[in-house]
Amino acid sequence: MVEDKDNFAKFLGFKVLELGQGFAKVLGHSSETSLNGAGVVHGGYIYTLADYAFALITNTDEHIALSSNATINYMEAVKPNTVLLATAKLSHEKLKTSICDIVITDETSKTTYAIFQARAIYKPRV
């Protein structure tokens, strides 16, 4: 399971709140170490939170999913010490591919900070 094997997500302290068929919620606590030179949360931290939620819902017992494309739109700057919530949903799934939409919000104010969309290519488990 991706959740158990993703050392980078563990290092960043990401917590899986919900995980189901085609749906996931992941929590990230930004800290001083996740800030960029402008004093706001680094875009790479936000991207990684979204990408982890994407990995959780596309990798299953039946297949391994590899990202073939991903885009992110940053809507608002994230202030230090913000609790971020990545909500991921499969919006399209076929035999060999899927599209996922992930929205990054603030856990308390529900401000949308980023919108991430990614495409997965499925590989059979061997």
Explain this structure:
With 126 residues, the chain is α+β, with helices and mostly antiparallel strands. 21% of the residues lie in helices and 47% in strands. The chain is built from 3 helices and 6 strands, in the order ααββαββββ. The chain has a 6-stranded antiparallel sheet with strand order 1-2-4-5-6-3. The longest helix is centred in the middle third of the chain and has 16 residues, at 43-58. The two termini are 15 Å apart. The mean pLDDT is 92.
Identify low-pLDDT runs: none
Q: Share of helix among residues? A: 10-25%
Radius of gyration: 14 Å
Structural class: alpha+beta
Question: What is the terminal separation in angstroms?
Answer: 15 Å
Give me the number of helical elements: 3
Biggest β-sheet description: 6 strands, antiparallel
Rounded mean pLDDT score = 92
According to DSSP, the number of beta strands is 6
What is the 3D shape? globular
The strand order across the widest sheet is 1-2-4-5-6-3
Order of helices and strands: HHEEHEEEE
How much of the sequence is in beta strands? over 45%
